[in-house]
Known about the structure:
The protein is α+β, with helices and mostly antiparallel strands. It has one domain: Structural Genomics Hypothetical 15.5 Kd Protein In mrcA-pckA Intergenic Region, Chain A (Roll). It has 4 helices and 7 strands. It has helices spanning 9-15, 22-30, 77-80, 88-94; strands at 7-8, 34-36, 39-40, 47-48, 53-57, 62-67, 84-86. The chain has a 5-stranded antiparallel beta sheet with strand order 3-2-5-6-7. Helix 1 (9-15) crosses helix 2 (22-30). The protein starts with 6 loop residues before the first strand and ends with a helix.
Amino acid sequence: MAADERQRIDKWLFFARVVKSRSLAAKLAQSGRVRVNREKIDQASQLVRPGDVLTITLDRRILVYRVLSPGLRRGPAEEARTLYEDLTSRAEAGN
């Protein structure tokens, strides 16, 4: 797998429009509210790659996303949705 297919979790969360700023994305990752493939992370420098499953705990929601590709920029919402597959509804249905 090429190194350019991996990306820091804080950049990816920002590009995927999960949070409004990269500093908020870093704080989210460092707070332990993000899991990569069920493993809790505590560093904004954690690398993610296509196929990784992220579980993100926000204030009132839990998001489950499968990473499809790394982001190149923070674009419009339509572009951000191409970076992930939303598995949230499937996870809620299983409970």
